[in-house]
Amino acid sequence: MHRPLVITEDHALLDDLVRIAAAAGAQLDVAHVPAHARPYWNLAPLIAIGADQADTVAASSPPPRDQVLLVTRDPEDPDTWRKCVAVGAQAVVTLPSGERDLVERFADAMEPDPRSGPVICVIGGRGGAGASVLSACLALRASGDQLRTLLIDADPLGGGIDALLGHEEAPGSRWGDLVAREGRINSSALHAALPSFGDLAVLSFQRGEVAPIPAQAMRSVLEAGRRGFDLVVVDLPRHLDPASTEALTRAKTTLLVTTADVRGVLSTSQVLGEVRKHTADIRAILRPGIVEDDMAVASLGIPSAGHLPDQPRLTATLNRGELPKLGPRTVLGSLCATLLRDLLPA
Questions:
Q1: Cβ-contact 44, 4 below 8 angstroms
Q2: What pLDDT, on a 0 to 100 scale, did the predictor assign at position 237?
Q3: Which CATH superfamily is domain 5-110 in?
């Protein structure tokens, strides 16, 4: 993989750029004069030109390209924007005030194959409604369709969605390894660190005592997930915490799983009132009950995304550590395929 290119003779500026690139997990190719930069000009994912070399670079008439920055340490230089235009840069970064922005740009340049996957949240309207099972099956079906999928367990007291999948012993990072993270996480590094099964990566909780997920850690994971995966599925707790609200604010769609009975609808209405404070597109997944589906949906005031019939053998299958069959002729497989078709871009 090609590296970002820096063109400067200013050793103090170069030291700053090497340090900033290291914070983004990047290494640099360095050219002290434009002639040395010529072999890398069209290959580097990003080019940072020091203000000291701007005029010399402009005089060499390099071909125009995207992802060129002019970097300066002098915010008062009146000639900065002339130099920016001369070298064909798209932006000026002033240090030290622009360090965070430059870290993000270096990190973006090192991200292979950006995917921009949507976030789908799943939450139960009442306990035992089956939100975690739907989350896991939706992620499994997506990965089976060769979509790179990230399944995130956001419920510290849920028992671990990796156990639901029968992979609680799989090696890899859990939330306990990530709760202290702030700022950017490289999506490739995240994927490599998590337990993965084909195209499915799972972020769950470790066994034993667990700590709440800080909102900053959830934000970093979701941003990495959106960059590096085709789909991010988040299994939310019914009692929202800061991490849950962080996920909801980034959700393309939230699926609210409820049973079509009086207590189920009443409980779901309470959950819905909290969820609505943080996200807009909320759809119901209905489980069988004594209330007609149309009446339950009308009572909630949100559209229905599907119906999930009871499956008596599903619990036994999961308790044996086996995964449910999600083929197109199965109830779960058909529902998940319909949801993916309706919720994901073509």
A1: yes
A2: 94
A3: Response regulator (3.40.50.2300)
